[in-house]
Amino acid sequence: MNPTKADNLTTISLSVFRLNGQLAEWGNHFSHPHGLTTARWQVLGAIALAPQPPNIPQIAAMMGVTRQGVLKQINLLVDEGLVQPLPNPAHKRSPLYVLTKTGQATFGAIDDRWNKHVQKMAAGFTGADLDAAVRVLSALLQFYGNEPSP
Amino acid sequence: MNPTKADNLTTISLSVFRLNGQLAEWGNHFSHPHGLTTARWQVLGAIALAPQPPNIPQIAAMMGVTRQGVLKQINLLVDEGLVQPLPNPAHKRSPLYVLTKTGQATFGAIDDRWNKHVQKMAAGFTGADLDAAVRVLSALLQFYGNEPSP
DNA sequence: TCCATATTGACAACAGGTTTACATTATTAG
DNA sequence: CTAATAATGTAAACCTGTTGTCAATATGGA
């Protein structure tokens, strides 16, 4: 008998756990030539793609993690010279963060490689399947992001 | 302009990271009344659903994590009386693990609740979308599980 | 049988993240 | 303006998982 819709939701949940681990490991290898890890790459991306220089809580909100978690990576990225704190005129204790010249070059290079990678991968999928997967994952994010568990 | 297939793959990748965090947190709440965490629940499930009592490396392979990671949870589950080591006739140092009476009752109860949960959730999705999502995630698992990153 | 190899458990060190807690700074209500 | 409240940075403890390392046990080929 075919899997029910409920069975598929279980499969998807388990796949997310497993794929998270695989993606994080793959990302560590992928970003290693640039001197990054998956975590630092994501923080770099959050800063690079923000419409305005963000502070730490804004980066955390964008990534869906806690500000304390972001803090560790930010401090490392500042030490490494990829990210630079700007004085925040609106909040003396909460600097805004921007990429340094080096940070921009690094993120530009890895983002190019990533885009080439997904363009290659995309050939293996139909547009309809990818659209459906985006719909399903977005709905799950919406649900589990708001639902106070029973 | 509509997102390209490559854009959707990027969206899916970021969604997996974020959904992993949300699911883990939700699972901690969901399993808390049973005295479990998401991690222990998964280990319990791996043992419960194995066709034969597994040893630690087999559980790790089933879950896609390292045997050392499983070891920590197993030792806790044994201490809590949910899991029991059996002497392994085929390998003196590698016991097989089964659920205790308590472990079976606990897993049965939480698995029932989970199944009720996904059955409710399933109403919000079309069968076609869920099938497509399973296809996409399975293909990604296949790819990232085998690909030595460039 | 005996030895090289692989498997496995165990432990330590590390990475990434969360929670808790506290001090400092902004914001807002009164 | 002042006092309560919220937001933020910072640090420490913990959870989960990884890698690296070692010792003990199986396994298989000579």
Structure description:
The structure is a homodimer of 150-residue chains. With 150 residues, chain A is mainly alpha-helical. The first copy, chain A, has one domain: Winged helix-like DNA-binding domain superfamily/Winged helix DNA-binding domain (Arc Repressor Mutant, subunit A), CATH 1.10.10.10. Chain A is 68% helix and 5% strand. Chain A contains six helices and two strands; from the N terminus they run ααααββαα. A two-stranded antiparallel ribbon of chain A has the order 1-2. In chain A, helix 2 packs across helix 4 (67-79) and helix 3 (56-63) packs across helix 4 (67-79). The longest helix of chain A has 27 residues, at 5-31. The mean pLDDT of chain A is 92. Chains A and B meet through helix 1, helix 5 and helix 6 of A and helix 1, helix 5 and helix 6 of B. Chain A binds a DNA duplex (30 and 30 nucleotides) through helix 1 and helix 4.
Instruction: Please state the structural category of chain A.
Output: mainly alpha
CATH architecture of chain A: Orthogonal Bundle
What's the total count of β strands of chain A? 2
Largest interface: A-B, 60 and 60 residues
What is the N-to-C order of secondary-structure elements of chain A (H for helix, E for strand)? HHHHEEHH
Tally of individual helices of chain A: 6
> Rough shape of chain A?
globular
Distance between the termini of chain A: 31 Å
| Overall pLDDT score of chain A | 92
Strand content range of chain A:
5-15%
Name given to the CATH homologous superfamily of chain A: Winged helix-like DNA-binding domain superfamily/Winged helix DNA-binding domain
Please state the oligomeric state of the protein chains shown.
Answer: homodimer
Radius of gyration of chain A: 18 Å
Largest sheet: number of strands, sense, barrel closure of chain A? 2 strands, antiparallel
Low-pLDDT segments of chain A: none
Strand order of the largest sheet of chain A: 1-2
